Amino acid sequence: MTQPIADVQREALAAIAAASTTANLTELDTLYLGRKAGRLTGLMRNLGTLPPDEKPAFGAALNAAKSVIEAAIASRNAELAAAERDAREQRERIDLTLPGRTPEPGRLHPLTQTFEQVRSVMLALGFSFTESNHCEEYLFNFDWLNYPPEHPALDEQMSFVLDDDHLMRTHTTPTQGRVLATGQNPPLRYAQIGRCFRRDAVDDTHSHTFHHVDGFAVDKDLSLADLKGVMAEIMRGIFGPEAIVRFRPDYFPFVEPGVEIAVKWGDRWLEVGGAGMIHPNILRRAGIDPTEYSGWAFGFGLDRMPMVLHGVDRLPLFLENDLRFLRQF
Amino acid sequence: MKVPISWLQEFIPVPTDGDAFDTFCDALTMAGLEVEEILDGPTLYTKVTPNRGDWASILGTAREAAAINADITVKIPTGAALTSGNGPVSVTIDDPDACPRYAATVIRGVRIAPAPEWMQLRLTHALGDKYKPVNNVVDITNYVMLELGQPLHAFDLATIQGGNIIVRRAAADEKLTTLDGEERILSAQPLCICDASRPVAIAGIMGGLETEITAGTTDILLESAHFEPITIRRGSKALGLASEASYRFERFVDPNLVLQAAARAAALILEIAGGTIDGETTDNIAKPHVPTRVLARIDRIRRILGVDIDRDEAVAALKRLGIDAERSAGALDCLVPSFRPDIAIEEDIAEEVGRIALGYDKLPETVPPVTTGRGINAPGAVFASKVRTILTGLGLQDIVGHSLTSTETAWTQDEQDTLVAIRNPMAPQYSSLRTSLFATLLPIAARAVDSGIRDFGIFELGSVYRRTSTGEYAEPRQLSIILSGSLTAGMWGIKAGTLPVDVYLAKGIVEHLVLGLGIPNVTVTPSAHVLGHPYRTAEVHSGNRVIGYLGEIRSGLELPARDSDTGQLYNAAENIPARSVFIDLCADSLMELQNTGGGTAGYKALSRFPAMTRDIAPIVPLVTDFAQLDAAIRAAGGEYLRSVELTDLYAGQGIPDGHHAPTVRIVFQADDRTLTSAEVDVAMAAIRSACEGCGAQFR
Fold it and tell me: Is pLDDT larger for residue B330 or for residue B194?
């Protein structure tokens, strides 16, 4: 009695094995298992005509055949679907050598990047940042910084004059006097990043407009060794963990002792700026007792730093803002 | 200072082989006297810091090397035996503060000739182009100045009237023709060296032409004097005349060199030019030099340096520096030599101990604890960083431009009235401070175009400078932007010019910016700007306050500027591409208005129910502003209206002249349930009729 079932199953399995597309399989599914006209479904109708004792065996054989056919369709479908996806994806191959495609991104100027890097290193070291004007009073640019009147040290800072009392600041060091003049009590730890001007001809390594960072601290028992430690931290934050800081005696009227700071980066020593212990005359002028408190101060240029880090050969490039240059950073 | 090594070797041994020589130079550099270069000769080129005038001599260089190196002792060349007393020429000093000491020596019977070759060679190495051979006597005075640091001057004795030298201030109308042939009016009252009737030299700066040594000179008067630094510096500045002598006097010359230098010069003159010394040297000490004493506590030195210092090593180092240091109950009693005017306080002694006894290479690195709390950034920097993040995120390039520009870039009357001019400019293109960021941005944009970049957006957040009517300097910060070409131009497959920059892009940038800064209620209204197309320029308001402008850059503008290299005048607007747009915002206002509060930006709960979207495309007369339509839609849309958004604007075929067809997407949503189509239909009917009320028709 189950012979017709076996025949349908054999025929179906052969057809499924021969199917070459998933669409064929869908047709075969309908042909053999379709609810209305499926061949196996058709045999189901014979069930009613069988004697009661044969019904269970016939029914079981039918269900078994249905399962076998369904499994064969599913298995063949998996094979064919994978092959068909492969073929489709192969047709979807694209030329990955075509150029990438985005709008031109906005970028930060390399000087802005340098300023922000220095700023974040110094904020982490506890420096609070101030801002003040580029048009500065002689009072803060020189007098507050212990420049003796009519001293040759002034010749090193040829300035742009605005009027008898004002000039374009020649360094960011006026931040010292501006903070101290407010009468704040120690401990103090302040810094400023900003633009400075000197009457200097423009060449590959000089410009009349440049940028400095100045920092200073006043506290009990600050020493030159502390200054060296803080400078080393800052320089390593900028130049990387291998950077080494060197001090060499130098002279600035606002510090005593005064030093020049150099950094070893790669195999070169780069002179980056000046520093030293705040001159007691300045502390006294601020109403701070120099026998109780001491301080240090430092300043360094921020234009040559990206020159060195990026291998830029001409300093004026930074303020020329040629887009072909800026788009490299 | 250029120090010929052969000359230095007369004072101290200088190693000649490569490594030892490099070590010698490095040691000088690391102790403070930087050897910048090795020049012909060979000659050391050293950097004399303004506080160490004593380094401006062979002797000073030798002394420094000997202080660093305990094995070296300085050998000082001998001079002639001069006797202090009353010589044939008397010396009167009217101003002992300005001239504390003046020595006059008379030498008779010299033969004037060129200086010997060896001396000329050394002077050439030491002075470079500044050396002009004169004659044996004058060259000897220069030689001794370079050797010992004491400027000297020789007069032809025959031209000195009255046998008397008077050191006094010049009278108001006095004149003197100096050695360089210039007639100088001495009205600035510099200190003068005078004979019985007239000035014969400007003290410490330059001698007079009439009393100079000439080929016919036989008897000379040799001046060796000490002048006070500020007097000489003032005189030099007032006359606009500087010399090797004034350079040294400004930096303080050792007063004890006066006789030593005269003796050295006299010995060389006698040896090279012959002659004999006539009598005693008149040595007028009007104001004796008082040596400085500094009491330096060892403990204080240690605290300044932050390192333990051995007291005996400190004393030894100070002694090598010529400082007579004696131990005195925990301190060092230091007698400072006359050639070190820079040493006056404890900190100065600490520096000498640090650099000579210790060496800064041995200074440890310690990081002091932060006792001031966390570092707080400047509000302006926080703001700037926020603005730069927003604008670079929109594809704009950050610019850092020059502050110095030409006076011609003050393009408006207001800018001209408030311009800050430099009193001593270097060049016309850098003669004043910018009043507008476009003074720097327009040339940068033009340069980009010249280099083949036509599609860009650039911005600068920076200071402009104004002088207020009360004479104060103001440095408002501006935020200015130029957009040119198309910001999508670099994307292949998108036809160039498909999405050119326009005023709406500018407006969108401003909208994103104020959103990012948390500034509410920003609107624009038609206005005027020096760069702007008269019908495509707007004021940007926050409430009633004008915070800036945006618009299309007008064609045919004439905005004068000067080329940064050549200084030539040109039109800064000339190469700006047509239809470029600008934004010009007052950054200080933005900073003031920004929301820095953190939690107050406002949040509206998100509905969990679906939104219903409807598009309408009314045909609207051009005279009806979109704002009017937008307001009408919002007013009519009912309580579930959530957004009104323009998605297209069409004009052309099918649309009558004088009209266009905006497509507007309207979104409805309720917070508590799903809206029904019928509800939305009712709202849309109201919206349509509101649009018709603005003159719109529907197809």
Answer: B194
Going from N- to C-terminal start, the domains of chain A cover 3-91, 110-326
| Phi and psi, residue B684, nearest 5° | -65, -35
pLDDT value at residue B602:
66
Q: How many domains does chain B have?
A: 5
Asked if B492 and A188 come within 8 Å (Cβ–Cβ), the reply is: no
pLDDT at B498 > cutoff 90:
no
Read off the pLDDT band of B92 (50, 70, 90).
very high
Which residues 164-193 on chain A approach chain B with CB closer than 8 angstroms?
166, 168, 187-189, 192-193
Average pLDDT, chain A: 93
Taking residue B49's Cβ as centre, other Cβ atoms within 10 Å add up to 21
What's the domain range around B561?
379-593
User: What share of chain B in percent tops pLDDT 90?
Assistant: 91
The full DSSP string for B174-201 is -EEEBTTS-EEEGGG--EEEE-SSSEEE
pLDDT digits 0-9 by tens, B206-226:
999 999 999 999 999 999 999
pLDDT of residue B68: 94
Mark which residues 178-207 of B lie under 8 Å from A by CB.
none
Q: Which of B593, B622, B642 is the last residue of a domain?
A: B593
Q: What share of chain A is helix, strand, coil (3-state, %, to 5)?
A: 45, 20, 35
Q: Does B120 touch chain A (CB under 8 A)?
A: no
CATH assignment at residue B134: 3.50.40.10
CA–CA separation, B622 vs B625, rounded Å?
7
Instruction: Give the B window 439-478 contacts with A, CB below 8 Å.
Output: 440, 444, 447-448, 451, 453, 455-458, 463, 465, 473, 475
Instruction: Say which residue the tokens 């104004």 belong to.
Output: B466
Pairs of CB atoms within 8 A across A/B:
255
A217 Rama class: left (phi>0) / alpha (psi -120 to 50) / beta: beta
- B204 and B342 in a single domain? The answer is no
Which candidate from A127, A208, A324 shows the least CB-CB separation from B451?
A: A324
- Residue A118: alpha-carbon gap to chain centroid: 14
Q: How far lies B123's CA from each of B58, B206, B253, B642, in Å?
A: 12, 18, 20, 89
Low-confidence winner among A112-126, B73-87, B390-404 (lowest mean pLDDT): B73-87
- Answer yes or no: is pLDDT of B597 > 90: no
B394 touches chain A (CB under 8 A): yes
Average pLDDT of span B679-696: 95
pLDDT of A289 higher than 90: yes
**A312 vs B: CB within 8 A:** no
pLDDT at B172: 84
- Between positions 122 and 161 of A, the ones with CB within 8 A of B are 122-131, 133-135, 149-153, 155-156, 160-161
- The pLDDT tens digits of the residues spanning B173-206 come to 899 999 999 999 987 778 999 999 999 999 999 9
> Does one domain contain both B324 and B207?
no
Do A245 and B365 count as a contact with CB atoms less than 8 A apart? yes
CATH number of A110-326: 3.90.105.10, 1.10.3470.10, 3.30.930.10, 2.60.40.10? 3.30.930.10
Q: Does B305 touch chain A (CB under 8 A)?
A: yes
Number of Cβ within 10 Å of residue B532's Cβ equals 23
- Give the per-residue SS3 of B39-95: ECCCEEEEECCCCCHHHCCHHHHHHHHHHHCCCCCCCCCCCCCCCEECCCCEEEECC
Which tokens hold the place of A237?
């934050």
Are B119 and B163 in the same domain? yes
Could you tell me if B248 and B145 are in contact, meaning their C-beta atoms sit under 8 angstroms apart?
yes
Q: Which residue of A has its CA nearest to B422?
A: A162
B37 plus B97 within the same structural domain:
no
